[in-house]
């Protein structure tokens, strides 16, 4: 069964940058879908006091208002994470955690930044020596070995499933799984050893990861630990797209139209670097929405 949909502009992220992009793109009469989970926005639990013309406003209220504004102009919202993005002849194919694929002419990345450190002993000292934050980037180094993925959302489950095709044994360390039924069913049907309700106490090894110590005291012998907390992040989604990042591989680089070096891909908000301010995110979202819509219209006219 074909489970694909065509859309002019797809937006990743439901924070202020993504919502403003959705408002401006939808107002230009193109089809818009916004993908992501509202409660994951850093604004959701914030209180706003420094945004022009607004004072003492709850972040979740602002997000809900922005969502309604965008919906009033025709934008659609799906509370799903994107697991993969593949270039197509006339745009990009986005595969979501429920198995749906969106064929988008233009793409706006407004996912914010991942603050996904565990903060446990050994994590920092063994980074690059068995500790990684990107399965898609480093997974192929662990062919035939035993590894663990730490996290309870889509990035962790998708990463663990990917690693079953590479590694000999895969552990998933998580508190309470927060994924779609589609991903949960794939996990249950696979070979991943799930440690639900577990937490990492330490990562140990001399010059290479040798074991993972759980809070329960259990020791898991392994050679690789992938920390994949939250939704699919920048590095995972950008790996196969050729998107230019800053020299430290943390942020997406854009021009004044919020366009990346890849045709049809735009970015806005914290994912483009500091300052971490809503005003910056909203402004960049506005610009990205306008030019992404213009790109989609131009492609449509040329077809």
Automatic annotation (TrEMBL):
Domain of life of the native organism: Bacteria
Keyword Oxidoreductase annotated: yes
Domain FAD/NAD(P)-binding: start-end pairs: 8-285
Any Pfam family hit: Pyr_redox_2
Signal peptide: none
Gene Ontology MF, one: oxidoreductase activity
Classification via Gene3D superfamilies: FAD/NAD(P)-binding domain
Keyword annotations from UniProtKB, A to Z: Flavoprotein, Oxidoreductase
PANTHER family the record matches: THIOREDOXIN REDUCTASE 1-RELATED-RELATED
Protein name: FAD-dependent oxidoreductase
Organism: Desulfatitalea alkaliphila
């Amino acid at each position: 069964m074909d489970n694909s949909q065509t859309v002019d502009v797809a937006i990743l992220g439901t924070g202020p940058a993504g919502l403003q992009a959705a408002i401006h793109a939808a107002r230009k009469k193109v089809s818009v879908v916004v993908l992501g989970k509202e409660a994951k926005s850093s604004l959701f639990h914030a209180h706003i006091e420094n945004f022009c013309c607004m004072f003492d406003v709850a972040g979740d209220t602002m997000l809900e208002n922005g969502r309604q504004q965008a919906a009033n102009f025709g934008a659609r919202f799906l509370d799903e994470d994107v697991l993969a993005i593949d270039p197509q002849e006339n745009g990009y194919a986005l595969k979501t955690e429920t198995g749906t694929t969106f064929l988008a002419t233009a793409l706006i990345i407004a996912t914010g930044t991942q603050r996904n450190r565990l903060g446990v002993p050994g994590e920092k000292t063994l980074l690059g020596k068995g500790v990684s934050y990107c399965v898609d980037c480093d997974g192929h180094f662990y062919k035939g070995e035993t590894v663990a993925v730490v996290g309870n959302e889509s990035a962790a489950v998708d990463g663990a499933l990917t690693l079953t095709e590479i590694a000999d044994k895969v552990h998933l360390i998580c508190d309470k799984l927060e994924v779609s039924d589609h991903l949960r069913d794939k996990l249950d049907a696979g070979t991943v050893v799930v440690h639900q309700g577990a937490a990492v106490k330490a990562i140990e090894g001399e010059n290479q990861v040798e074991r993972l110590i759980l809070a329960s005291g259990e020791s898991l012998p392994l050679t690789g630990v992938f920390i994949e907390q939250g939704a699919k992040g920048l590095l995972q989604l950008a790996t196969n797209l050729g998107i230019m990042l800053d020299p430290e591989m943390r942020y997406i680089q854009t021009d004044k139209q919020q366009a990346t070096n890849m045709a049809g891909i735009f970015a806005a908000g914290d994912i483009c670097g500091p300052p971490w301010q809503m005003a910056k995110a909203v402004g960049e979202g506005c610009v990205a929405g306008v030019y992404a819509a213009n790109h989609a219209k131009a492609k449509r006219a040329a077809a």
